[in-house]
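To: structure subgroup
Subject: Chain for Friday's discussion

All,

I'm putting the inputs and outputs inline so they're searchable in the archive.
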Amino acid sequence: MRYQSSDEDSARWDGFPFRQGDIVISTRSKSGTTWAQMICALLVFQTPDLPAPLTSMSPWLDWLIAPRDEVFAKLAAQRHRRFIKTHTPLDGLPLDHLATFIVVARHPLDMAVSLFHQSENLNRDRIAELTGAPRPAPAPQRTPPRSMHDSLINWINRDVAPADALDSLPGVLWHLSDAWERRHADNVLLLHYADLSADLEGSMRDLAARLGIDVPETRWPDLVAAATFEQMRAKAKEFAPDTTGVLLDSNAFFRRGTSGAGRELLTDEEHAAYLDRAAELAPPDLLAWLHR
């Protein structure tokens, strides 16, 4: 399936020459993409002193900001084990047997809150300039401005085709349901944001084992320390995906990093309505894993 938006096109994967050992990180926005990229970088290079900026080593292949041929050439020149970013669901990717596909999941309510903050931090004129799209019209002023609570309720209730809005609740659960159905494949791995938060070292060790990467015991403390949210936030200008100036504030990209922000905004009745809505969109075993 082809997924397109104003700044992404999954068709850019067509004809991509995979190599043995490639890693593709497939996530929804604000679900742990940069965190997973950082963990993969640390496991591949086995040092916190990375040889290049994270976004340079791990490009977002389907983003229209950079020409496709330029991205392909950059990846072709890499001699290390490659790890590539995408927001495309697995059914929109060429699931080549040479590669491992990592799908990172986050509680949808927390993802939605982070997405709300992220939307306030985007330089939309700069994005339009880089993609060649028309400059966005100024948003109408609301009196009073819509609250985060109201935005979250609207996000929960929005009725839209998943492919038309992948960061909507239907889109998020479409992405994760597709990955969930493929979770027993040898080259598909699911990571949960909550597991990374609760046991970062254990999650990193499990991922290294699944990727066939041997890490000397003496290196683990430094690698785990470098992958913490606090360390990444302290080096936001180095790790935030903002080499082209699409963020108004790189430091704001790493905002909170904890779970529960979405649930805090909802009453018990509103949360129950969210659970009913999610149950319409995804299988119960996935939701049990996702919401735990």
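Points worth raising on Friday:
Residues 10-107+123-146+173-251 form a domain with the Rossmann fold fold (CATH 3.40.50.300).
The radius of gyration is 19 Å.

D.
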